Structure formats: structure tokens, C-alpha cells
Amino acid sequence: MYDFAYEKPGSLADAVKVLSADPDAKALAGGQTFIPVLKQRLNRPSTVVDLAKLGLTGITVSGDTVTIGAMTTHATIAANPDIKSKIPGLQHQASLIGDEAVRHRGTIGGSLANNDPAACYPSAVLALGGTIKTDRRSIPAEEFFQGMFTTALEPGEIITSVELPIPQKSAYEKFRNPASRYAIVGVFVAKFPSGVRLAITGAGQGGVFRHAEFEKALSANFAPEAIAGIATPADGLNGDIHASPEYRAHLIGVVSKRAVAKAA
Amino acid sequence: MGFEGIGASVRRKEDVRFLSGKGNYTDDINRPGQLHAYIRRADRPHARIDAIDTAAAAKAPGVVRVFTGADIAAENIGGIPCGWQIHNKDGSPMAEPMHPVLAVGKVRHVGDPVAVVIADSRQAAKNAAELIEIDYTDLPAVANLTDAVAPGAPEVHDGVKGNLCYDWVIGDKAVVDGVFANAHRVVKLELTNNRLIPNAMEPRAAIGDFDTSSGDYTLYTTSQNPHVIRLLMGAFVLHIPENKLRVVAPDVGGGFGSKIYHYAEEAIVTWAAGRVRRPVKWTAERSESFMSDAHGRDHVSTAEMAIDKDGVFLGLRITTLANMGAYLSTFAPAVPTYLYATLLAGVYKTPVIYCNVKAVFTNTVPVDAYRGAGRPEATYLLERLVDAIAYDTAIDKIELRRRNFIPADAFPYQTPVALQYDSGDYQTTLKVALQNAGWESFEGRRAEAKRRGKLRGIGISTYLEACGIAPSAVVGSLGARAGLYEVANIRVHPTGSVTVFTGTHSHGQGHETTLAQLVVDQLGVPLDQVEVVHGDTAKIPFGMGTYGSRSLAVGGSAMVKAMDKIIAKGKKIAAHLLEASVQDIEFKDNTFTVAGTDRSKTLTDVSLAAYVPHNYPIEELEPGLDETAFYDPKNFTFPGGCHIAEVEIDPETGVVDMVNFTAVDDVGRVVNPMIVEGQVQGGVAQGIGQALFESAIYDPEGQLLSGSFMDYTMPRANDIPPLSVATENTMCTHNPLGSKGCGEVGAIGSPPAVINAVVDALKDYGVRHLEMPATAAKIWSIIQSAQPRLAAE
Ligand SMILES: Cc1cc2nc3c(=O)[nH]c(=O)nc-3n(C[C@H](O)[C@H](O)[C@H](O)COP(=O)(O)OP(=O)(O)OC[C@H]3O[C@@H](n4cnc5c(N)ncnc54)[C@H](O)[C@@H]3O)c2cc1C
Fold it and tell me: Does pTM surpass 0.90?
């Protein structure tokens, strides 16, 4: 990596100040994406601003909402009994991310800010209709995810937490890339009284997306058979050495059915 | 202290060091005043270098020197040599283009070293390397075999027509064609052996050290064969005589072949150390490993078997294209010839065989031996072809194999492809493997899986391989530029403890234990009083290193010979001490005894006398108890056996689940059963990796698409089922231990077993063959394309 200055501010205001004053300063959460990027010299920050001391960890449940601090690790989420009982799909999803070491360092805020098109959490947050809270505003999931590695975050803006409505039922099913073990297709399905929401990660060229046809069919009948006959077009899906767009289109159907079967 | 000799599963002595982080690897070594090298590599597959501007880099903070190919070319420095010369079918030698240490004029693969920065720190060297400006003119590139031999293909080396390194044959084409013309039937199969990236856990590293007072050079390097590196680098590249060059290969974290070869970086750091008169260290980053460690396999073949009406093999005819990459790595030319085509008889009595191999240059990383080296390619081809014959003729695949096996009473057996097998019993390894795998009850498991919506398949491979490549005179006549003997020096110390200096090298195999067990067995010295030393040209007389599963069969045999000499000398000393005749002295259990009496001297009594020769036959015998033996084997050894794989496929996704794996191998005498089991397990894991996951993928223009673990699928622990590993051994008849070798059998026997199982699982889809790796995406598309046909039926 290139040389950089390192700061570990003790308050959110200080962190925002450092990041806003210098467009080349970058936030560091768990480092599980950022540090490999630095090692490969794909990024050259002037200052790395460690968010570890901002008090952004923790999971709280109030009413019909779960709030997760941005710096909460995947391992904490996977081990949390409230998450397990309220949003079992999220608990399972967190348990599938990376490996033990990644889960103990990587954070939900870091993952959402990064918005890797193959990352897991964006599917949960979008399917649940969550809200991303930052140092300055609240951003609905629909507006937050704006394509591969692109989000609604402004320069210097820090995610502080994410609010997730508690669904009646939820499940996550992941078809892994055999090499990286990120999602080739990851499907998060959430059933609310108002209807079913289903979001897909790993497959779309524009990152995470909802599947309107599946949602409609599942809202009418929350069962795998409800979507069995619905084909997903391959247009707009990723193709790489591991999976063609056609294969991904097919997997979207299979993985979605399995997610629904698990949730139902 | 229990039984520690041959046959005991004693725990590995070296593991305490490895498991507690106390291993001493090349990168753990730091020399006083050490500088760091960073290598700027080609980011493109094929280009002319028009200009290199190093001025900014040379002025960067911490930089001591920057060297380019021009600096090397200005000195008396040779190219990286190739250790084996193959001849074309017309008798002319292979094309052997210059392999410069740093690129001169052109770059020929992504990762080709272009310049090196020597600086105070790795970081400073890397920062400066980015400041080197290289003007390239891109040239058309070629990455895969069929493209490289197509008319009009870009030339990787000027003047190497058709990118052909050699066009080699074994066997009599006219005779074989005649057999085919009259055969009942010919079964044909086209197949690819996928290119692999070795990925040893420890990346390669090298430290060059120059002693300004003596003028001596020392190279610390991640090598499987330090003496070979000293010879190649000293004699051919840097022109440093052996007495001025020491090569040390300390603890090495896995090699699998990739650390056999002499690499440019070794020469760069050694030469640079002399130029800057300070030690210079280089350690590969993982991404450099992907683009600079020699890759493995990469064959495209057409195989045909002529058979009679009963499926008896009458003749085998093969053409193979073998990828050499951009330059010839140390043993590359030997792999698709003498380590491949000579194995094409396998376990079968096929009477005539013809094989034509064209080795081809491409704009890719050099390809060389990788665990199994040629034998996995031969085994995969044969065992897939045998299954295809069973498929086409509807003869049971076990019965077909049995009909064609070389019978157990036919040894020594002369194959039509040069090798003469000394021993083996293929019916027995097959029988035991079938039992252990529950072959007979498989259809029940298939039916049960079907009820769960899964496609279950079983596959078998009955294989043979050749280890301990030898004898030197024969390999020399076949083009080897080195001998293939091994050296052991056994030093019995004054108080009877023993140090073994072996020319083999351990990079995870457990030699410090296995070889010590030979001393326990032969000299009766307890294991904890035996030390095995390897990997240092200053300590070990000579050695050819470790590859081709040769360390026990060849290196261990050299130890036996050296210990024979120790015992012979010890008997003379004991005879003197016991005032008896030498003929009457017997040696057993660490003790010299006058036959038929209770008068005896221990080995310690004798060694003490040898080093403190107060009462000693000094007129007839030199003091000391230290003997060396060079052992040149009479033949290869021929391990073999039977592997059976069982898979389950999810037809909705194409995912293959390895559910069972059974190996029954014949490795000759087993010294440490636990270590043998571990070696077979590791080899099988690599074989499953090749069959289901691993693939080095280049785009047609020569960019490596699978250049990191994000895209190159290494098998993980949870991809590998519990492995049932057993041995059924026949003894090697020509070495004193009877051992054959176990390091590669796992990787050789398993890939076809796995693919045969996958094909079997897909039998309802009309699948006769599919290429490795059998990824989910590939299987899904096969199932997809079969759907319309199935629906129509
Ligand atoms: C081997 C491995 C396997 C992995 N497998 C998976 C997987 O299967 N599924 C998956 O989803 N992910 C996977 N990951 C990624 C992992 O989940 C990362 O932890 C995550 O993507 C980033 O989180 P982090 O806390 O490590 O953030 P960092 O790496 O520290 O930061 C990532 C980016 O987000 C920014 N950032 C971080 N926190 C904030 C914040 N609070 N506000 C604003 N910006 C912020 C940083 O500036 C940086 O640009 C894997 C990673 C590795 C190394």
C-alpha cells in the first residue's frame, strides 16, 4: 500500500470533519474490503480515518424495527438472538459472509457503503425496505443503492446505523462463487403484511435489485410453486468466468424458490 | 518410547516447529544490511519494449539501484537454462529460445520480469518501480494451444515457426495404423487437461548475499533442489563456480513441483547482491505467484483405442498438444514426453502404442511439472478413454479393465513405450477398492439419491505411475542434462547419535521423520538421536532434490547404502575391540556381537573408539564413522492402484458434491503409514481440485483472468469428503527398501475417477465426456442442452 496518515477520531463530528475537509481522506471500518484494496494499490488515500471509536456498534429492537450500528460486525449479527428471532434471514446471511476472520472484522456499515454487486447485505436491506442512517440524514434503501460500488453517500458522509423493519418471515439463500464465495446469486425474501419483497444480489450489472414479478406472485401465494413458472430474462445480468448471464438468470429462479421454501 | 522403525506411524518431528510458528522460511531470514528487490513485470502478454526510462525511479527515496534487461545483457550473464533437451521426430533438437533473466527487446507473458528496483525497503522499491516508464508496442498474442498452432498465428519467438518447440513421437506409426486398420472397432475421445496454478502456501522468495571479504555468494531460496539451482545458476547464468556459491533452501512451505525450477528472481537477487555489495531480498506477492510460478498440465489430446470384439485393447494412438508457455522452464520439455507418453500403457497390456506430442509456445506463464507431472495427464487420458470404450461397447467398466490388466504374474513387464514395470498387482488393488467403496451396493445409493432429487454417480480409475526417475545413463540418453541419482551422508557422532545429510529436500513431506526412521531401523539409534539435514549445498555433498516422489525410493536407498558402509566399518572396529575376526561380527539392534557369544559392543562403543582412537586398528582403518553413498537406481519405481469417487449432482444448479472417495494404492514398502495417508489425502485433494474446481483461464489475448483467489477456485477443506485411504503393496524389486513413492499417487489417480463419476451421474442425459473442471455452470449447461433431446424421446 501507499503511505497514508492514520486518524482514529473519538467523535462522529470529528470524523466527519476530517473526511469532509479532505476529499482524499477515506473511512476505515473492518478493513475487509478496504485493506485488500490498499494492498493492491488501487486506492491512494491521504488519511485513513478509523471509525472504531465512534460508538457505532450495537443492535437494538424497538417496536417493529431493528437498528444495527454501522460498525457492528457480521459475527455479532450472526450471533445475536434478537436478530435470529426477528429476522432469521439476516442472521443466516451474516453467518455466510466470508470466513470466520472476515466475519469478526467486517461490518454492516462497511459492506453497505461499499455496495459490492456480489455482497450479501444489500439484498437484505433492500428486501426489508430498510433505511440507512448517516451523520446527516436518513436514506431509504431504494435510493441508497445506485449501482455497482455506487451509493447515495456524499463525500465524507458516514453511515451510522441501519434501520430494518421486522418482517413476518424472512430467508436468505446464497449460491456462492466457487472461488471467492461471494454471491453469484443471493436472494433475500421478506414477507410483510403489506406484501412480499424479494431482492437479488450478485446477479445484476447494476448491483442489487428487486424482482417485481416474483414479488407479485409471492404476495398472492407465498410458496415456491408460485414463482416456478416465471422466467427471468438474462438481459442486464452479469457474466464472468464463473457464470454466464443465462446461468445467473436460471439460478435466480432456483435460488429464489429455495429462499421462499426456507422462509415459508 | 515405542516402536519407531520402518512401519511405525510416529508423529512428525518437524510439526512442533511448523505448528508453533517457529519454522524458518526464506522470508524469515534477514541478513545484516539487507536491501529489498521489487520486480516490475509486464502487464501485457506480448509487446516490443521500445524504451525504458528508469531515471525517476533511480532518484526515488530509498532506491539504491535500478536494473533492466540491458544491464544484464551488458554482463557475462546467460539465459535461464533448460534442463532437458527433446529431439524432434526428424532427429533435430527442439527449439530452445533464449530465456533472459530480465526481458530484452520483448515481453512474452503477463508477469515477465522487465526491471528490478533495489531499495532500502520493499515499500520504497515498489514505489519506485511504479515510476519506471516503459514504452511498449503491443504485438498480437496467443494464449491457447489450438490458436498457437493455427496457420498465421502470432509468433511468440521470432523464427520459431508455428510456435513449435518440438514435434516428438514414440512408437511405430505404421505398425499402429496397421492395427487400427484391421481392428474390430476404434473408440475415440478428444480431451483437454486443464491448466493449473500450483499455489504453494508459501510464496516464492529469494535472498542473494555477497560476502565482500571472501567474494562468496549465498542464495537463500524457496527451492525443492538447492544443488540443482547452484548448478544451473552458477554454471549457466551467473558463471560463479560452485566453490564460491552456496545455495540454502531452508524450510519451504509447499512446492508441488513449482519450486523445482531455476527462476529468474534467484539469479536477479544473487547478481544484484554482488553489484550493490549488500544482501538483496525478494518475496513474491500472491499475485506475482499467479503470474510467475510455473503452471501445470495444459494439454489438448486426441486419443483412439483399437479394440477387438471383446473389448481387448489392440492399439493406442494419441496426438497431444502441450503448452510450454512463453519460455522453457527447467524440466518442461520432459513432462509431456518421457513423463507422459511413456506412461500410456498404464495398467493395461495394450500391445502397440503410438504417441505424437507437439510442444507449443504461447504468451503465457511457463508450464512445467506439477504434482504428478505428465502422469496425471496420461492417467486422465487413459482412464477417460477406457470409460468411453465401456460406454460405446456397453461392456462393464470393471470387467473391461480386468480383461486388459497386466496380470500379476507378468512382471517384470516390458511395455511398448520403453518402460519396464518391476512389480504390481492391479487385480488386488481393484478388488480391495471395490470392497472399500461399496461398489456393489452403489445402485441402492443412486436410487436413494434420486428420491431426493439428486443425480448420483460412481467413477473408477485404475492407474499406474512412475517415480524416482532413473537411471542416470538412460535419462541422459533421453535428453536429461543432469543425473538422477541421490546422495546420503550418514555421520555417526562420537557418542552414537546420528546426523543424516540428504540431497533430497522436504517441503512439507515429513522427511525429517521418515528418513530418521530408516536410521532407527538399520542402526537401532532412537529417533530422537537422529537429525536429518537437507537444503544446504554447504552441508550436503550433493543431491538432486525432491520431486517425482523420489526421496524415499532414491534418497532413502542412498541412506541404506551409506549405512551399509557404516556397519561394515563398524564391524572392523568392533572386531578389533572384541579381539575377534570381522567375519564373526554381527550387527543388530545397535549392537555388534561376536556370533554365538554374548561378547558385544554397542554402536556408541564403536563410534567412540572411531573418534577417540586410542585402542584402534589405525594401521588398517581411518578414524571416524562417517560414510557417504551415491545411489543411482536401476529403474523407475511403479506405484499404482485404484481410486473410486462418488458424487452427487444437483440437477437444478449443476453443483457437484463429492460424497465419497476411496483410494487403494500400491506404494511399495511403507515407512510411516500416517505420513503416507497424509500424502495421499493431500494428493487426492489436489486431484479433486483439478477435476471439479481449478482452472487457469487466459483470455484469447493472453490476459490471465483467474489471477487471484477471487477467481481461481482452490479446493477448500469442506469441498473434500472424508477420504478412505488404504494401501495394498507389492515391493519394488530393485531398490533396497522396496519403496515406490507416495507423494503424487493421489493427484494422479483421482481426477479421472471424479470425472468418470460425474459422467456416470449424468448418464441419463447422454453424456459421454466432459472437460475438467466440472463446474456447476458447465454441468448446468450440459443438462440444459440435453433437455430438449430427453423431452423428444
Ligand atoms: C475473504 C473475504 C470474503 C468475503 N466474502 C464476502 C461475502 O461472502 N459476502 C459479502 O457480502 N462480503 C464478503 N466480504 C466483504 C466483507 O463483508 C467486508 O467486510 C465488507 O464488504 C466491508 O466491510 P468492512 O467493515 O470491512 O469495511 P471496510 O473494508 O473498512 O470499508 C469498505 C468501504 O466502505 C467505506 N466505509 C466503511 N464504513 C463506512 C461507514 N460507516 N460509512 C461510510 N463509509 C464507510 C470505506 O471507506 C471503504 O470504502 C468478504 C471479504 C473477504 C476479505
Answer: yes
